[in-house]
Amino acid sequence: MTNKEELQSLNEELMTLNMQYLAKTEEFSQTASDMKNLLDATEIAIIFLDNDLLIKRFTPYVRDIISLLPGDVGRPLAHVASNLRYEHLLRDAQRVLDRLTSVEANIQTTRGEWHTMRILPCRSLDNYINGAVITFTDVTALKQLEAQLQETARFADSLQEAMPQPSVALDAQLRVRVSNHAFAEDFGLVANEIRGKPLAVLSGGAWN
């Protein structure tokens, strides 16, 4: 084979390798784009950290919770201002990396919004820990509903207590959920001690 033929063969090999490289690069770029679109579409606030708790990437919804800008990528999470009424975010993230366990907590922002925070180890394809991922799921509506239900229950209990007639409320298993003092006095019971007990065992089984 002449030098010219060898050079032509080498050029062909280089062109083939270059085309394969370009194809892989395009595939990687498309995968990264698809992943970004998927994360943005979830409407969940997500932060990806490396093993030194440096910010690798985040979804736009994080900005309502932690004041992150595109230029914050690569910065320590500790250097970023937070709107959370929670002082243990960094401690929890480090604990996840140290113990390879998850952490979950319901936390509140300074605006009164509630989020369920989850921190999990982030594993690479070859099963190495390469950081942590933090997610914040908005549960404000659920917390507000819980508060309304608790207020309704307290109001119902106060009405029941104000009734002069004996009154008792049972759950689905016929256990005492709440009773008023008139009920307890009439049957020789102590109102605070019978909560949660089956109706059938009260007063020596008289209700059985």
From TrEMBL:
InterPro entries: Bact_Chemotaxis_MeTrfase (IPR050903), PAS-like_dom_sf (IPR035965). Pfam families: PAS_10. This is PAS domain-containing protein. PANTHER family: CHEMOTAXIS PROTEIN METHYLTRANSFERASE, CHEMOTAXIS PROTEIN METHYLTRANSFERASE 2. SUPFAM superfamilies: PYP-like sensor domain (PAS domain) (SSF55785). Gene3D superfamilies: PAS domain.
